Structures
1.
Amino acid sequence: MKRVLVTGAAGFLGSHLCDRFIKEGFAVVGMDNLITGDLKNIEHLFKIGEFEFYNHDVSKFVHVPGNIDYILHFASPASPIDYLKIPIQTLKVGSLGTHNLLWFCACQKKPEYWLLQHPRCMVTLWCIRKTKITGATLTL
Ligand SMILES: NC(=O)c1ccc[n+]([C@@H]2O[C@H](COP(=O)([O-])OP(=O)(O)OC[C@H]3O[C@@H](n4cnc5c(N)ncnc54)[C@H](O)[C@@H]3O)[C@@H](O)[C@H]2O)c1
């Protein structure tokens, strides 16, 4: 069974991705520090054996025991209100968080990954744009 890591799993997009990948027959590892997310979004998954959850800040480091086949990186505050409330955490997750996930990819044996960060917020705040660009540059 393929195993996918979803960061930002308790958020809006991440929680739907967890649902979708469980439905598609994947084992799903959700990771989230709940800074803007809510466990209510994924509580229905806790009874499913193929779902695991780590309450963890990806800006610090990323490690998941066992093999991971795919990574979907959706950990990031997503609204201008949150950017202004928690600007440092937003910058850290877009830069250090992305860097840590890339490092985790590099340490895995199977280099077969998706690393996604949607760029909608590039048009909102300059500093957020810089963070997303930093994440995109690190990915390249
Ligand atoms: N919602 C949209 O319509 C939309 C559209 C395009 C792009 N995006 C992008 O998708 C991503 C997620 O958006 P969303 O709407 O799901 O936001 P969200 O706030 O609902 O979810 C983000 C999740 O990331 C978690 N998180 C934040 N920092 C973290 C960290 N350091 N470590 C671990 N978890 C952390 C939060 O707790 C939250 O659960 C963002 O990058 C956003 O810019 C969102």
2.
Amino acid sequence: MENAQKIIIVVIVFYLIKPCLTQNKSYNDIHTYNCGDYNITIINNERTFNTAIIQRLINLYSSLYPKLVDRFNRNAPKSVTVRLDPTRKSSFIAVAYGNTINISTKTIRYQYRYYDILLHELMHVVQDYPATPEAKWLGEGIADYARYTYAKGNADTDWSLPDYSPTQQYNDSYGVTARFLVWLENRYNSTIIEELDVSLRTNTYTPAIWLNLTGNTVDQLWTNYSKYPILITDLSSALKMDTSYVVDR
Ligand SMILES: [Zn+2]
């Protein structure tokens, strides 16, 4: 057989089997969106994923991420990559490394309204904290504070802060710490979240920061919180029930 004929046969065979090869390749559906100085790339690795959720993620990023950057860290990345990952274990929800976020498609596929988990992860991108014990419990609390505060406009989000219970501690992290922070912001210091955030990023956090910012140690604050944990948003109904309460300062 002539070499030219061999080449033609190889090419024909390749094109016959190409659809099979393509089908076996991992799915990589890439969406990019630019919004002024900001941009987001979403890499969807699940072929059957609902594209309406991708649009929600893009909308959430473009409307809220610049607000997080403006408020907390103007040196935060202006470019974020989000991978929608179907391969991780079932306990995996989402994680941020630098300006790259991985979100489990299992989580937001079946909890459709849980898409605002992206807000929590975007706050981690803004935080850019060095790894310290406080960056873990307080950092997660601040990330859930951001999710709570900025997702309020998303009326369909299927997530809320946990109610107070006596078994909780201020360093339980996530929603427990976030609710405590909302309470502190309303009652003691309107810029306490920014102050705590900077101290974690610059690795200058010490327990004295609570005393400096509120006049109370964190243990005293938690005791006060446990006596009357109602949030200011619930205050009008709370005052009808109990007008005797005065916050200890
Ligand atoms: Zn987190």
